[in-house]
Design goal:
Chains A, B: It is an enzyme of class 2 (transferase). The structure is a homodimer of 420-residue chains. By secondary structure, chain A is an alpha/beta fold. Helix content of chain A is 33%, strand content 16%. A five-stranded mixed β-sheet of chain A has the order 3-2-1-4-5, with helices on both faces. Chain A has a four-stranded parallel β-sheet with strand order 7-8-6-9, with helices on both faces.
Chain lengths: 420, 420
């Protein structure tokens, strides 16, 4: 078979280390240049393929590609665009095949979360049903840590580290000031359906009574009275109370504490504003002085304090994806497998996409304490190694050096455009 | 004169490096142990003196004191408590003299901002008018960077670094996603009356057109239509718009964009919620998808990415305060003086407290661009060196090692308490 090119794209919310996966893909493909041609990156994810808007990564120097290791966010642009099923929108698939054929693309690497795994699976299915041979490999990435079959998802470890450190630092601030000033601090973190990120804040605590004193998980129904009673008791006992709240915190009936009418491209409701809502409760019911923070994008782009473990894994799944492709595999995802034994270890193994797409891995209930406000020792044991190591970028004049690629477009070969 | 003890306390909002000043004070006092006795730290600032709640720093090991260099927030506790004038509340001053006499305290080191400089000045005045000899030295600290006579204030450089880095990182996130998702990102930062912190976000930009695209300063009256027009133009031209807004942003008539009824101990209104207010404007008028973050305490406690320059200066002002005391000085503050020449340099020089207390240094107008939405080259030249260098803490198991002191109380010598 003549040598074919590869398509690589980033999808969904970006992370501090998704570019490390890109680096793993491109460096490994270059290493196997006798088997794989050029890696074409989609500008803004799958949309780049639909629009025939491809980036020629062969025009980037080796040092620029290496620089992706220390550069946050999506260097090639990402997107929120979910492919419909073949029967619902056949035109999109026909267009993809047209573009792939035009550029001799035989490998499809898609770097994303659960929704993107679904896109990747559909590409593999398209290849079979529409008789266009393509190997579709999904590269895991999501700060939500909710992909099944993999022990954890690249991107999560760095958010976890950022949130754990920020919680510890802010808690020391409140502890210093609580005698005459702020008594309650609320940090709102991401996590729509699964409380993994909120749980990571629990790593801030070293001793009994340390902050965070209350963690709010989407998995545990929010009870206003129970929450306020715990805040009050904590302030009475400790002098202050630190709360870390997942944006997905909801009442028993499934309504969020703050509902917003904005809906994203995947049909998910856009959340936010939970921290001020909780602060309002604390003020009106308990009268404590409060402060609140919303980390939002700061948490998922915080490359300046990325986890070395996370970075290594992000690179490894990118590298493994290319190796799987060369080995002739299709419709799989490199998964992270945790080793047995007390010392943390991990390896990469393949997982079938059919069992990953559109699945959400929830936190095991036994990672959350019985009262629903904290993490257990089992939770801590799972989370702790994911934040090991500090993968610092280099700095110049006090600012991190983040790579800017040339992003040279590949000449279009098709006469027609495509409206996305 | 027999050897006297020293009182040291932390006041007002804490910073990532205020403990470095404490380290400078304690290490230098230990070095001059033939001239200065024990450094007693006030628990929770001046309140510790009023309550005779003193901490014996001589019980802390040399390595614990060194550990303060890498520990954020106020290790001895801080407070928001402003002394009234001698005529208004003579009882407080009489109590202070009683406590200082009981513990043979002849040196008063107060580590804070403008309000605290006022407290420090009053202590010096009290010493004279009430015939109790005490040398009061103010040690500058404020993230607001609004102390006069000093080129900058310790604590600011680290916040500036954190905000500049966070802005760059978040901006890369939006840039990756803007094609199909978030178009506008708003980061709310501290700065009640002076826009220094918001200005620091301007260091995130390297090239024309880089984020932040709009900075909102308290110094520039907010004009809704002008703001929205700029947001729209930026999204049209760049695909996305990053806004950094000072919490003190206000309309021409002096009203804040979001007013809150909460007032702190110094009589300042407690602000917050500007970011969602701006986001609401963007949504209702322009319809763009947005995200917003509020850094709040995360910015001022972010020791994990402190500026080395800031850290060095924080230590130096603590050290200089003790040296001034030994040299017999009173009612002064060690100020940071910027050297001439192209290469950044600084030294410490004394400044009189009378000219510091209750003064606020505003940003020079020529640091802000004519349109009021950015920083000029002059502003950049001033700000840039303050974030030079990365003063990383050490880590264990992925988390920074922050010092916990023993905080052993000094035995009380007075029969009576004092209600604060």
């Amino acid at each position: 078979m003549p040598k074919q090119n590869a398509f690589y794209a980033q999808s969904g919310g970006v992370t501090a280390v998704i570019n490390a996966s890109a680096c793993g893909v491109i460096e490994t493909a270059r290493k196997y240049s006798s088997q794989i041609g050029t890696v074409y990156a989609g500008r803004n994810g799958i949309i780049g393929a639909l629009r025939e808007d491809l980036i020629d990564t062969s025009k980037e120097s080796a040092s620029a590609i290496r620089g992706l290791l220390t550069t946050p966010a999506g260097a090639f642009g990402s997107c929120r665009h979910k492919l419909k099923s073949l029967t619902e929108n056949r035109a999109e698939y026909e267009r993809l095949i047209e573009v792939f054929k035009a550029h001799n693309i035989g490998y499809f690497f898609y770097n994303g979360g659960g929704d993107s795994a679904d896109t990747c699976l559909k590409i593999a299915q398209m290849g079979e049903s529409m008789d266009y041979p393509i190997q579709a490999i999904h590269i895991p990435k999501t700060i939500d840590n909710d992909l099944p079959l993999t022990d954890n998802s690249p991107g999560f470890g760095s958010v976890a580290k950022y949130i754990a450190i920020s919680t510890r630092e802010a808690a020391m601030d409140i502890a210093s000031m609580c005698e005459t000033s702020t008594k309650v601090f609320i940090l709102e973190v991401m996590g729509r359906h699964a409380g993994w990120i909120a749980a990571a804040s629990g790593l801030a605590a070293e001793q009994e009574g340390d902050a965070p004193h209350i963690i709010l998980f989407p998995e545990i129904a929010f009870e206003r009275e129970k929450f306020l009673a715990r805040v009050q008791r904590t302030v009475q006992e400790r002098g202050y109370c630190v709360i870390v709240a997942s944006e997905g915190t909801q009442y028993k009936d499934g309504t969020f504490l703050t509902e917003s009418s904005v809906v994203d491209a995947f049909g998910h409701q856009q959340l936010g504003g939970l921290a001020p809502a909780l602060a309002g409760m604390v003020r009106s019911e308990l009268g404590y002085k409060y402060h609140w923070a919303v980390a939002d994008y700061l948490q998922r782009s915080a490359r300046h304090i990325a986890s070395q473990t996370d970075l290594d894994q992000a690179y490894a799944v990118g590298k493994a994806a290319v190796e799987y492709a060369i080995a002739g595999k299709n419709s799989v995802m490199p998964a992270i497998i945790r080793g047995e034994g007390k010392e943390y270890s991990w390896s990469i193994s393949e997982a079938p996409l059919e069992e990953i797409a559109n699945q959400e891995k929830m936190m095991p209930r036994d990672y959350i304490t019985d009262d629903g406000f904290g993490i257990t020792e089992a939770g801590r044991e799972y989370l702790a190694p994911l934040i090991y190591g500090e993968a610092y970028p280099e700095y110049r004049n006090g600012m991190p050096i983040y790579t800017r690629l040339k992003l040279e477009p590949v000449a279009k070969k098709l006469a027609t455009g495509f409206k996305v």
